[in-house]
Every structure is written in C-alpha cells, then in structure tokens.
Amino acid sequence: MDARFLFSCALAIMTLPAAAEDRVSPPAVRLPPELARVLADYEAGWRAGDGAALARLFDEDGFVLPNGDPPIQGRAAIQRYYQSAGSPLVLRAFSFATDGSVGYILGGFSKQEGQPDTGKFTLTLRKTNDGRWLIMSDMDNPNRRPQ
C-alpha cells in the first residue's frame, strides 16, 4: 500500500470525534430554587406518567421539539404527547441563565441518580407575571447516535 494512503487513513482516524462514552459531561451546577422547581416538577410528572402535570410546566404556546418527530405545540398537544411518559428520569443542569423574563437551562438526563448522562436537553423558559418560570421549548436527544 502507498505510504501516503496509510498516513491519510491514520490521520483521519486520529481526528475522528471521541466515542460518546469517552466524552465527559460538563459538571452539574446548582440552580436557583425557582429554576430547580422546573426540573424537579418535570422529573415527578415524567416518573408518574402524568401528561397533564408535565403540560402545566409549559407556556400555553410552548413547544416540545422531540428527536425524530415534528414539533408539538400547545399545552393540549403536549399533554397528549406526554401520556406515554412514566419511566425513571433524573435531570441535572450544567448551565443556566436568566435575563428579565427569559431564561434557559442546559443539562443532561439519565435513568438513575449518579449514573452517566444518557442524553442532554435544553429548556428555554419564560417568566410569567406572577414570577413562575414556564417552559417555552423543550428539546432533548440521546448521547448515542442511532446504530
């Protein structure tokens, strides 16, 4: 084989992104109580399979942006979509910010406390007039690519 070809192959392999299991997730950050409530209520609603409770966490015109499916908009549609919830879920934040009435939380999720993240999420938030943070959009995807 041509040495240049072998060198090119070796260089290509060395520059490939690391496998997902070789990457380290960002460390968790502590959220202010009003944002921590969003994640705690989301976990509780998901574990209970309570689509209505999950939908109440969203702005009336909020979106779920699921991996592999079209956007879901509005509380009624979100409630129907989340009726299939009901499994273990642990959420942790690794970044957040707020500015006036808008904010976001970036984080990871797993099925058990202390386990490596199996996926990541981003929540964009809107603060209501009564000071409660609601989800405007929820997007998540797994850490592993489909086989």
Structure description:
With 147 residues, the protein is an alpha+beta fold. It has a single domain, classed as Nuclear Transport Factor 2, Chain: A (Roll), CATH 3.10.450.50. The protein contains four helices and six strands, in the order H-H-H-E-E-H-E-E-E-E. The chain is globular. The two termini are 31 Å apart. The N terminus is likely disordered.
Provide mean pLDDT, rounded: 87
Would you give the CATH topology? Answer: Nuclear Transport Factor 2, Chain: A
User: Termini, distance in Å?
Assistant: 31 Å
Q: What is the total tally of β strands?
A: 6
Q: Please state the second-level CATH architecture.
A: Roll
Features of this protein?
4 helices; Nuclear Transport Factor 2, Chain: A; alpha+beta
Short synopsis of the structure:
With 147 residues, the protein is of the alpha+beta class. It is built from 4 helices and 6 strands; from the N terminus they run αααββαββββ.
Q: Would you spell out the secondary-structure blueprint of this structure?
A:
Blueprint (H helix, E strand, L loop, with lengths): L2 H12 L18 H16 L2 H6 L1 E8 L6 E2 L1 H7 L8 E10 L2 E9 L8 E9 L5 E10 L5
Parallel strand pairs: 1-6
Antiparallel strand pairs: 1-2, 3-4, 4-5, 5-6
